[in-house]
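TODO from last week: model Phosphate-binding protein.
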Amino acid sequence: MKKWKYLTMTAVMGSALMLGACGSDSAQNGNNAETKTPASSEQDTADKKLQGAVAGDGSSTVAPIIEAVVEEYAGTQPDVKVSVGVSGTGGGFEKFIAGETDFSNASRHVKDEEKAKLEQAGIAYTELPLAYDGISVVVNPENDWAKDLTVDQLKKIWIEDGTPKKWSDIDPSWPDEKIVYYSPGTDSGTYDYFDEVVLDGADLASSATLSEDDNMLVQGIAGDKNAIGFFGYAYYLENKDKLNIVKVNGIEPTNDTIETGEYAPLSRPLFVYVKNSAMKDNEAAYDFIKFTLEHGGDMANAVGYVSLPEEKYTEALKTLEGLK
C-alpha cells in the first residue's frame, strides 16, 4: 500500500477518492434497519469482477483509512468507481440523509436528530465499527511548557468566557502570551466529541480558527509558538516532526493507551454507516464495504489508527451479510 497522502485527490485504477474537508464503543443498528436472513451463498466475490459506482462521504478523521482501502480495492475491482467526499461527520450525514451516498464515515455516533431525519427520509441504515482513534492535543514545537494538561486545564483553555486568555492564566509560570486556537469545524465529529467530553457543551473559544481541513490546522499550529489545537491521532503521527503532542491527565496517546481506553476521555471509536438498501441492491457497494471490513484493521494500523479486536470485524461482517 502506498503511504497515506493527506487529503489528496486520488484516482487509482478506476477508483476515485475525492477528499474535500473534516468528521460509545459498541456497534449498533439503526432502529429502522430491517433484519434479513443471512445470505446463504458462500461464493467468493473477490474472484468476481464487478462494475458499478459507490458513493460515500463524511469524517476526515476516517478519511485516511478509507483512502488506503480505496487504493487497495482498486487492485481487485478496477471497474468499480468509488468516490468519497470529506465534508465532516455532520456534512456526511446530511448527504446520507439526502440519499446522495451509499455509506457515511463518522467519528461519532449518529445524533438523535439525524436519526429522526433518516427515518423521515425512509432510509434504513446500519452502524459498523471500523477502528479506534485518540483525539490528540498538539502544540507548536517551541512550546516547552504545556507538556501535560489536565481535563480541567483543557476546559480553562478552550471554553469561551468572554476574555482573551494567556498561557499565564492557566499557569502563572507559563508565558504571558495570548493563546492561539485551532479547531476542527463544527461539522466535524471530532469537534462534537471534544465538545461533549471536554467542554461539556459550553462554547469553544470564539477566537479559534475552525476548519474541516485538518491539514490547515496542522500548518497553523506549526507556524505559531503560542498555538494549540486538536485532531485525530493519525494526523499527529503524519506531522509529528512539526508538532508536539500533549499528554492528557498524564497519559500520552499511543496505540496501546487508545485501544485500552487508558487515554481518557479522548479515546473513541470510528464508524462507517451503510444504507441497508444499497447493501442489498448495489453489489459493488456491498462488495466495497465487505472489503473495507476485511482490510480496515490493517489499513487503520498502516495510517496511524488502532485496529479493533478481530472478533469485532467478524461480527461486523456477519451484520453486513445479514443486510444482503
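Done. The radius of gyration is 20 Å.
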